Amino acid sequence: MKRNWDTIREVLTRLEDLASTDATLSLKDFSEEKAGEISYHVELLIEAGLVEGQMARTLSRGPVEFIARRLTWPGHEFLDSIRSDTVWNKTKKKFTEKGIDMTFDLVKSVASDVSVALIRGAAGI
Q1: What is the rounded distance in angstroms from the CA atom of residue 65 to the CA atom of residue 110?
Q2: What is the spatial distance between Cα 113 and Cα 54, in angstroms, rounded to a whole number?
């Protein structure tokens, strides 16, 4: 399965939006149609250290249940760089225009550059 950056952004945003520190995010919080994709991406986010959580390993095939507790510091930092719809859409457009693959470091860097350009433009700099 390929990484889907929109799914990654959705998971990070939904985890940040939890109402309390006791709340968790799990597979049931997402549509059944996207269960496999969500499960896969949560596992990637846990492996990358952006999300604190656990995958429930089973012998069955199909989506793996998970419990995501919170964003880590790097998870918050990454989400901060891509939270804005304007920044996110311009970031994705830059990758499409250049025909290059989105990697974590590049996404964060390009999103940061887009944010700076937007701020400078708004400030008339």
Answers
A1: 33
A2: 33
